[in-house]
Amino acid sequence: MLHGSRLINTMGTRVRLTNTLDVRARRESVARRPTRESSTAREMSASSYGAAPVDAERGARDVDGSDESDGSNTRRGTWRRAGAFVAFAVVVVGAVASARSWTLGRRRMVNARFSVDIGCITKDAIDAHWPEFFESDVVGAEVLFRGTPPREFGGSNRVGGVPLVQDGFSSIFTKVIPVKPGEEYGFVLVNAAGQRMFEFGHSRHFHHIHRPVLAEGTCVDKVRAGGGVYTHRRIPRRMSEITLNADGEYLAAGTWGSCVGTKCPVTVKLIATVSGSGDNVYGIEESKALNERWKLYKGHFTIVTAGVENTWGLDTATNQLAWTRNADLNPYSAANWNVVTNAAGSSGAVVDFDAGYDVVMGVTNDDKVWQRPSSGANSWTPAGYSGSRLIQTTVGRTNLWGVNSAHRLYWSRLPMDANSHWTQETSLGTSVKQVEVGDADAFVVLTDNKTLKRKREDGGGGAGGFTTILTPSTLPAGLVGIDSVAVGETGLWILATDGKLFSCRLPCNGPAEISLVPDAPANIISVDAGKVPHP
Hints:
The chain is mainly beta and 535 residues long. It is built from three helices and 36 strands. The protein has two domains: 24-255, no CATH class; 269-529, Regulator of chromosome condensation 1/beta-lactamase-inhibitor protein II (Methylamine Dehydrogenase, Chain H). The longest helix has 10 residues, at 23-32.
């Protein structure tokens, strides 16, 4: 990191059934509808993924179908994170009762806001249930309904469901869809390879037939069908069981693969420092970074880096190194910072570093590479074989990436040990200024300060394999040059050479997707985004 960013990437599920405040008028409107098809079919036809609409008559069938499918195709993808991006399991927040209840009377339809947080899928769940799916960026989520015969989810149209819309830069996808009480449904993840993974079982991609990822959840019903018992999500079957809030919404919220009582980890935090003396550490939750003002915290550093739980700060003028929990950043006192000795053997102080999932990797003035636990315990120890030399490092989920003094790019498999060697990305030659990685991608800034490229975090894609995002002729208006980048949960954060901050939704495909962060602090000198947490 050249006084720039660090790495990160992660997404829960909410289902809200909506009514208008004028319930009586809505009842009359619903009563006049000849069938459910007119309203539902319109919703289904809006698929931005080009999937066939789900059968509009899905709500009229009995609960006696056969088995289910995740409806995914067989194309191989790449394990990456959504926001893009990353490995995770959907946790369902569960039905949320409101303080105010509305009576539905004889209504046959209700509007449901289906919301799914896909930001906390665990690595164990990924490894057990089709890990190849996550090798590609997760780019969306859908809701799939149990369809017509053969009673599989989505019926003959199970290749696709109703696309949900990402809520800002968060890991939550949501949409309002008319449904009937008793509807059975489930959520689908969509990756960049066009594959869809349904959260329930009976698929060749799942090891346990008839055993869904979302097992024993309090937000599901056990449905007997086709000689088996399935655990399905289901809208309450009786109108008397459906509670609406003051906005006329029924909330059934959750996260991918879990229900009530399980919550996603704290969302990723962006950390920045600005020029000048005095307190200069700013932070904000990534999902709020485009809409709210950043908070100033006590502490002064020239470089900051955020891990899953801890933020580290380094003052390169004094070599003071300290860490604090992300949750303990304090606007009133600097006592939360735990100062630790910054001495890496005979090499002296670490001068640049990056916090990963469980390690902090750093480099010293003699370009040697060092590591220590991100928990703040212990001290710096050598990383890589004795000849390893880098001037900047960044920690991914599977690899450590770095740039040497000749501006060449290298990566090595994690965890590092005394025998770890490096693979050079020869296609970029001696033109690399900074590399920053997330769960899915490695982003590379070239020495011209105007070229930005992307490659898979695991080094895959063959020789070269880089996608060009920006060039000197395609820089968006206002972005005078690129100082560094930081990879978050769902966004790429671009620090300009004039201290302004820009954002781009992951995986960031070009200048049209890049915009200025309106309320970011002025004169930023270092920015980083916390890692995507996976239990």
